[in-house]
């Protein structure tokens, strides 16, 4: 929260428990720093407001803050990271199965395999908004755990003998998996301070690489090398194994992760109040279960929303292509054997885990995630040029492997949604639009790999380079926008008189409505 100059403070407004008994009650008004118009603060507040009004405000010491952060990390991050590794393993299972005989057994020709990749994201696209609405209306952790168990069941059923059934199951799988990323963004913003969000998001998102290591090596390679000893084809066992792991983790999340800090079984009552104090500086709380039309409209009119959408689209065209065709490029274009493809497939995963975590850790020393993400975006152009234009297959593989640090761009936007988009309905809406861009990009990606361009797929590689270049330009423009907007708000605050509203952080105001909100760069 910005420093308050006493000479500019006219009076203080206190929000009481009786004020929030009615959702429609207007408590007071403030001036929007974006439009200059009056914004009503009503009784329809954030869930965290009920906690702070229930008793006296507690004081958080630095020692308590550090101890509580360690406890939250210990109880939440391991399971979230493991689940995120598993969901990426589920996505890549299609690519591993392709080099184990899936395409032959299901008689795929021409663009048929490309559509198995696109079908997943068609389901994701169709269900993204409904999934986001479910996450707002119902308890977050319990809701996402139900989706996880169901997608594990669907994954086990992937060992079907017909192409049409396989494509249908991929579509359903995409719809169910559409819930996990928005759920984890909400959970991260509930528990962590703005300055902590980027590193935690990077930690769980980089576990995509862990999923690639475990799936390609521990599951894919071992199944392929012993394929003659199984009653089922190796590619079918890939889906059954990953599906069973997913089901177990779904039940673990249901019982282990609380829906918000006030329901945390591992915190004392005092610690629950301390968590609220920790996130006060975020200018947001745990969330609000009511859909607010005004916030929905604001999300659609906010330039951030569409910048996020286009960045997501541009970064995920390469992602969609390489997720489904990475193994095929290694076997057909780089002339690796199937065993070598599965074994070396662990290398990009290791690069992603180490690279994303390392750069996120560097954020602790130079706190500008936009800087790091823009730098990685520029580097990604070089890595994709290696993959696309290098004549040596080792150089091509190096470009492919090094490009796996590019998710840091996606992580930057996810953490920006968590910390820079405020107002729960607005956050859910922007998150959904961002992930629609993710879906569309991943839909387009496999379609850039045309069968008549095999085995080099020159058109797809050129498209990836172009998309990465566009992403870099957009990241720079978004960075400039945040700097200018924060400076404008600082100037506006210093020139204005205002009233102080106690606990305004938990009034479910949006970033455009709250004059004390500043964007994290």
Automatic annotation (TrEMBL):
Keywords: Membrane, Transmembrane, Transmembrane helix, Transport. It is a multi-pass membrane protein. Its main location: membrane. The chain crosses the membrane at residues 74-92, 112-131, 143-160, 202-225, 237-257, 342-363, 370-389, 401-421, 428-445, 457-482. It is found in: Membrane. Belongs to the major facilitator superfamily. Allantoate permease family. It comes from Clavispora lusitaniae (Candida lusitaniae). One of its GO terms (cellular component) is membrane. Pfam families: MFS_1 (PF07690). GO terms for molecular function: transmembrane transporter activity. It comes from the Eukaryota. Gene3D superfamilies: MFS general substrate transporter like domains. SUPFAM superfamilies: MFS general substrate transporter. This is Allantoate permease.
